[in-house]
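Example (one chain per record):
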Amino acid sequence: MGVVLHRDMKSLWAAVCSVAVLGAVGRAAERAVPPVLPVENFAWRDVTSGLALSRDGRTIAYAAGRDRDWLLMLRDWETAKTETFGAGAGPATPVWTSAERVLYGSGASMDRDGRNLEQGEIGPGRVIASRIEGDRAGDVLVLRYDPLIRGRGQFSYAPAFPHVDRLVLRRGIALPEARNPGEVTGWLADGAGGVRVANDTRGVENRVLWRDTDAESWRVLPGLDFTRDEVVPLWLSADAATLGLAKRTPAGIWGLYGYDPKLGRIGELLLSHDSFDLYGNTALVLAPRTRELLGVYFNTERPQAFWFDTEMRAVQQALDEALPGRLNQVVSLGDDLKRMIVLSRTASDPGVFYQFDLGAKSLQPVLARRPWIRAEQMADVFPASFMARDGQLIRGYLTLPAGRGQRGLPLVVLAYDGPGRRVLYDYDTEAQFLANRGYAVLAVNYRGSSGYGRKFQDQPKRNLGVLPQEDLADAVRWAVAQGIADPARVAIMGWGFGGTCALLGLSREPGLYRCGISLDGTTDWVATLAYRRQSDTGAIASLLDTVGEPGRDAAALREASPLHQADRLTAPVLLVIGNGYRVLPEGNTAYVAALKRAGKPHEVLSKQNDIEGFNDTKGRVELLTRIERFLAANMTAK
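Predicted structure:
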C-alpha cells in the first residue's frame, strides 16, 4: 500500500500563521545589523558545479570556475588530492560514463587518469542514460535536436522534440539511436541502453509510448493514452520491469506510482501528499545499478525527504543529526550505496558539499558553492501564508533583514516568473541582496503556481490579468496588517511573468506601490504569442492554454498586457530588458513609447543586443547596482 503524507490543515495553518511570522520578526530583530556587503557578493554565482561520485566511490568529479573560465576537478576520496584539467571544461555537472571515464564541459571526455581525451559536441546536460551495461558499456545516450530552422536573431530559438543519439566516447562519434516519431519531449532507457519509453505530446495532451526492443514500432501503453495533465513518465528500472510515473491522484495532486509494462497496468500509489505535488520541484534518488527508487526529496513549506530504503532512511537521520537545521540532500551515490555526496544548505546558506562514508562513519566537508557567503550575515527566511480576498489560502516566503526592528519595514514584493512554477524555501540571491540593503522581501506563490494541485494551478488560466495580481496585492495588505510593512514604502519586482505582474500592479493598484521593477516582463501578449509560435514550438500549446488565444480571449489578453494600461501607471518603473529568446524587442519598444506619450516616470536598462546579457558577473553587478539605486531613490520615508 502506498504512503500518503500528512495533511496540511488549512484552517490551523491560517490561524497560527500571523503569530508564527510575528515571532519570526522578533527573532530577526534581535540579531545585529550585518554590514552592507559588496554587490559582487550577490552577483557571483556558484563557483562549482554539482559533484559526481565515481561508481567505485574513489573519485569525485566536479567543475570549478566563474563566468567563462572553468576547470574539471578530479578529487581523490581518501587523500583529497585534486587534479585539474582545463581542456573542454565548463559549468555542467560531470557524468561518469564508466568505472574509469568521465564526460564533462561541452562534450569532452577522458579517463580518470587524464588520458584518452576526446572532444565531442554534446555535454552532460543532455545525457539521459549514462549507466549502460553489456555490449554498449561505456556509451551514453544523449538528446539531439534538429538544426536551427526557425527563429529570429541570435537569442530567439528554443529547441524542441529531441531525437536520441548514442555517444561512443572513446571513438568520439555519435550514432542515431531513436528518431522522434512525433512530438516526443522526453525519453527513458533500460540498463542495456535500449530506448524503451517516449513521452509523446499533442498540444497540451500527452501519452506514454513503449517498445520492447529497438527494432519494434512504438505502441501506446494501456491506460496511458492521450490525457491532459494526468501522467508523466519519470524513471525506468534497469531491467525495464517497472516504469515510474507522476500521476494525478483523485484529489488532483501529483503523486508517484509504479507501472508494469509487461502487464500493461498501473500499480498502487507509491507516495503522495494530500496538499503538495510530488512532481516538479522533486528529486528522485535511484540506485545506480538497478535504478530502483530509493527515496524522494520534495517540497512542502520546507524541503522534505522520504526514503523507501530503510538503510538510506537511517543515513538521512544520521545526516540530519550531524548537520541540524539544514536540508541535507544526497546528490550522488557510489554503486555500493556506502559512499555518497551530500549537499547541505539552508535559505541563508547556498550550501556545502560533504562526503559521507557509511562504512567508516565519516562525514567530511569538500567545498562550498559560494565560500564568500557567511550565513550569519544573511537574512532569515520564513514560510508565510494568508487568506486572499475570496478565502483562498496563498503561501509564500518572508525574508526579514536582521536587526532592523520589528515593524514598519520597507517591503519588496517578489513576483516569480510563472505561472506553472513556484517559489521554494531556498537560498535566493536577490532576496538576500535586498534584505542586506534593509528591505523585507515577500515572495508570493500566487494562483497559477505549481506545487499545490491542479485546481490552484488552473484557476487563473486565460485570465492572467486578474487573480495573480489580486493575490500579490492581498499579500501587501496582509504584510501591512501584520505591522511588518510600512504601507508608504512598498515596491513590486519580478522576472518574466513576474515582471508583467509588476507592471500590471502599478496600473491596477493606485497608491499601493511606491515603484516597480520589471525584468524581462511581457508587455503585449498578442504580439508575444505570435513571436513565440515561431521561436518556441515546444511550449506554444501550453502557453496558449494558459495565457489564452488571441481571437477567443482577446479581452483577457488585453487586460493582461501592460502596453494597454500604460496610461494608468501610478508609480515610477524600472524596465530591465535582457537578451533571452522569450523577450520580444518590439514589445518593449512599444511599451517605452507608450510611457513616454503618457508622461509616466520610467527608467530602462537594456542588454538586448549584448551577447552576455545578465549572465556574467559584470552584467549582474550592473543589474543589482541599478536596482539598489532605483529603490533608494523611490522608497525613502515620506
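Caption: The radius of gyration is 25 Å.
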